[in-house]
Amino acid sequence: MKMNRLGARGPEVSAIGLGCMGMSDFYGPSDRAESIATIHAALDAGINLIDTGDFYGMGHNEMLIGEALKGRNRDEAVISVKFGALRDPAGNWSGYDSRPAAIKNFLAYTLKRLGVDYIDIYRPARLDPNVPIEETVGAIAEMVKAGYVRHIGLSEVGAETIRRAASIHPICDLQIEYSLISRDIEAAILPVCRELGISITAYGVLSRGLISGHWQKAKEMATNDFRAYSPRFQQGNVEHNLELVEALRNVAETKGVTVAQIAIAWVAARGNDIVPLVGARRRDRLAEAHGALHVTLSGSDLATIEAAVPKGAAAGARYAEAQLRHMDSEK
Predict the structure, then answer these.
(1) How far apart are CA 315 and CA 312, in angstroms?
(2) pTM assigned to the model
(3) Helix, strand and coil percent figures for the chain, each rounded to 5
(4) 96 carries an active-site annotation
């Protein structure tokens, strides 16, 4: 397994990571036993970066990962946790809380649910508009000093916020959406991260399955499936986006690989400071994603991919407008 260091002084992680959100939330029903088997398969393959959030399934995802890690060496996994998102009993969103006291409370529950003594990377899920990022990072830094957290990360924040956060404590990585059809970070966010020595852990590399080569328009989505409300999956947009997928399929077939593998390989090829997170819920999907590490893209390949899926070619935003308005990374 190829390893990359996150940031200048962050942990060494596998060239791809496993995002576990879909095992508990947002994409309809999942199989608990298969989810645990998938986590085991990832660790056995040398994929050590395991990403979660304390609000995925209101703690369910952390407990699931904790169960999967039982009996294994703690250092097999680099656990990345997002915190701060508030939800009500119906699962609705009710804001963010990154006050120092709240952070320490969230962390205490996370440690208990995961059954570990420390979190490798701890990060606010979004910027809390009511709390300066300096206070948020400062509170996590106290937890680093106390030994409960090893490294500090960020998620979905813009260039100015990244600079302010990094002035308080070293930041190992920014977790943000990045894929062939979500490339906005290239304008300002990615250059600032590279200037400051901050890596990118890229989620949504398959755009929630849209550019995986497996998703079909006729597929019926459950009401608790995030994609049922995602602009890129809506009628009028999805048809156009699936045409892009077919263009990408032609490129993949020429290389003798799958659509998902070419899409993941493209993200990985953007630099050693970018680590794709794959949201596999099943071992077969994980194996397919793992195979992307064996795909080498030449300059000619990258040009062909660019021609098939030009920057800005996707129809529809990556989130609904109401959500984008509250995302610091979109400012």
Answers:
(1) 8
(2) 0.94
(3) 45, 20, 40
(4) no
246: left (phi over 0), alpha (psi -120 to 50) or beta: alpha
d(CA 248, CA 251): 5
Residues 221 and 274: their CA atoms lie apart, in Å, by: 31
* Amino acid in position 156: E
- Asked whether the beta carbons of 48 and 14 are under 8 A apart, the reply is yes
87, exposed or middle or buried, with CB in 10 Å at 0-12, 13-18, 19+? middle
In the chain, alpha helices (H): 32-44, 60-69, 100-114, 133-146, 159-166, 189-196, 238-255, 259-268, 283-291, 299-308, 321-324
Residues 264, 121: Cα–Cα separation, whole Å: 23
Please, what are the domains in the chain?
3-209+258-295 (3.20.20.100)
Q: Using CA atoms, how far apart are residues 306 and 5, in angstroms rounded to an integer?
A: 28
Per-residue exposure over 233-247, b if at least 16 CB sit within 10 Å of its own CB, e if not: bbeebbeebbebbeb
For helices 259-268 and 299-308, the axis angle rounded to 10 degrees is: 120
Select from 94, 3, 83 the least CA-distant residue to 49: 3
Taking every pair of Cα atoms in the chain, the longest distance, rounded to a whole number of angstroms, is: 54
- The mean pLDDT of the chain is 95
Of 1-10, 188-197, 214-223, which range is least confident?
214-223
Percent above pLDDT 70 for the chain: 98
Give the confidence band of 296 by pLDDT, cuts at 50, 70, 90. Answer: very high
Q: Determine whether 201 is exposed, middle or buried from the number of CB atoms within 10 Å of its CB (0-12, 13-18, 19+).
A: buried
With beta carbons less than 8 A apart as the criterion, state whether 79 and 50 touch. yes
Catalytically annotated residue among 56, 96, 122, 178: 56
pLDDT at 56 over 80: yes
Give me the residues paired with residue 262 across strands.
none
Evaluate whether 281 touches 38 at the Cβ level (below 8 Å).
yes
